[in-house]
Design a protein that fits this description.
Shape: globular
Distance between the termini: 46 Å
Strand content: 15-25%
Largest sheet: 10 strands, mixed
Radius of gyration: 20 Å
CATH class of the largest domain: Alpha Beta
CATH superfamily of the largest domain: Enolase-like C-terminal domain
Length: 402
């Protein structure tokens, strides 16, 4: 079997997605997600201009060899554009392999390690009362784990607070919107938010919170310590993680579990964090971390150090990536939890899928391959629309992490 054709599909059914489709001489095809929020066309060009010519004539069953060929052969390694492109190829090859053998991808990864995949949803509100109502809705839907985000009093807008009940899209058409930020207001508010949440819903629900990289290590340590009475499942992205050793300061001051990694691209981005047990959950995504093959290596390293997985699963990743993540989640022993933001109806129609949700858990289904497809004719009805993620500034105008 050989790869004889391939093309990149860019569409915008509510938000932009980049999808790679590889086709073999036997007519079997596989698809992979290559979406990089706000930089979609860079990945599309990388695939079309530099990667696809290298794949024609290759054996699609040589998945590991192809991964190493694209990673080491380019000389210029790592980075979000390169790794998203490699991730798309890798995912498409696993899809082809599963279809060729007539089995779901998780059977190729060693079979299931559990019956279903625990997921968490996003409860967002403009203020505390609005957030409490959102948490109640998720509890009624059967979610056992819920990420809780609220607007901060004194700030006009807060990134991470959605515009819809079940999903939100942070990227907006036009030039990047700018939002104001105050660390002081935020640090005073969040413990009060979770005091209300625990008071209303008791000790059983698992609650998570995302800081969006906006604190320094000592500020994150203060927040983690203040949140200890409310027993969070995790505190996510407390600080920008380029300085991995910064997590040592947080660890010295709090027992609140820490999660990070959705912007990581390789195992090298999290090696120190894992080996020094500075985090509890690694959140690398299938597409941004080079596909299922590389994600498995990260999980294997993490397992040695009691670190569990918690893959990124926001709506800036397509249902193709969600399906791939669920196959990975079902198979790895040290799985922790999976983020699950529901896609829009338009997106679900463009990407029909076999995965299902039932009372706080998901399953990838038993269809051969990934169990997800793309309707190319329908996708063509949703052309690309340039969109950017917001820019965060402190109250004095200084550009800040969001």
């Amino acid at each position: 079997m050989k790869i004889v054709d391939g093309h990149v599909i860019v569409c915008c059914p509510g938000r932009n997605f980049v999808t790679l489709k590889l086709i073999t001489d036997e007519g079997t095809y596989g698809i992979g997600d290559a979406t990089l929020n706000g930089r979609e066309l860079a990945v599309a060009s990388y695939l079309e201009d530099h990667v696809l010519p290298l794949l024609i004539g290759r054996n699609p069953g040589r998945i590991e060899d192809t991964w190493q060929y694209l990673y080491k052969g380019a000389y210029w390694r790592r980075g979000p554009v390169t790794m998203a492109a490699i991730g798309a190829v890798d995912t498409a090859l696993w899809d082809i392999q599963g279809k060729t053998l007539g089995v779901p991808v998780y059977h190729l990864l060693g079979g299931p390690s559990r019956d279903s995949v625990l997921v968490y949803g996003h409860a967002n509100g403009t203020d505390v009362d609005d957030t409490l109502r959102a948490v109640e809705r998720y509890c009624e839907l059967g979610y056992q784990a819920i990420r809780v985000q609220s607007g901060v009093p004194g700030l006009e807008g807060t990134y991470g607070v959605g515009r819809g009940d079940m999903y939100y899209e942070p990227a907006e058409p036009g030039l990047p919107p700018e939002q104001r930020w105050s660390t002081e207001l935020y640090l005073d508010f969040v413990p009060e938010l979770f005091a209300r949440v625990r008071s209303e819903f008791g000790p059983e629900p698992m609650f998570l919170h995302d800081v969006h990289h906006r604190l320094t290590p000592i500020e994150a340590a203060r927040l983690g310590k203040a949140l200890e009475p409310y027993h969070l499942f995790w505190l996510e992205d407390a600080v920008p993680a380029e300085l991995q050793e910064g997590f040592r300061i947080i660890r010295q001051h709090t027992t609140t579990p820490l999660a990070v990694g959705e912007v990581f691209n390789t195992i090298h981005d999290c090696q120190q964090l894992i080996q020094e047990q500075l985090i509890d959950y690694i959140r690398t995504a299938v597409v941004h971390a080079g596909g299922i093959s590389h994600l498995r290596k990260i999980a294997s390293l993490a397992e040695l150090y009691h670190v569990r997985t918690g893959c990124h699963g926001a709506t800036d990743l397509s249902p193709v990536c969600m399906a791939a993540a669920l196959h990975f989640d079902l198979s790895v022993h040290n799985f922790g939890i999976q983020e699950y933001m529901r896609h829009s109806e338009e997106t679900d129609r463009v990407f029909p899928h076999e995965y299902t949700f039932e009372r706080g858990a998901m399953h990838p289904g038993d269809a051969p391959g990934l169990g997800v497809d793309i309707d190319e004719e329908l996708a063509a009805e949703y052309p690309y629309q340039r969109a950017y993620l917001p820019v965060n500034r402190k109250l004095d105008g200084t550009v800040h992490s969001w």
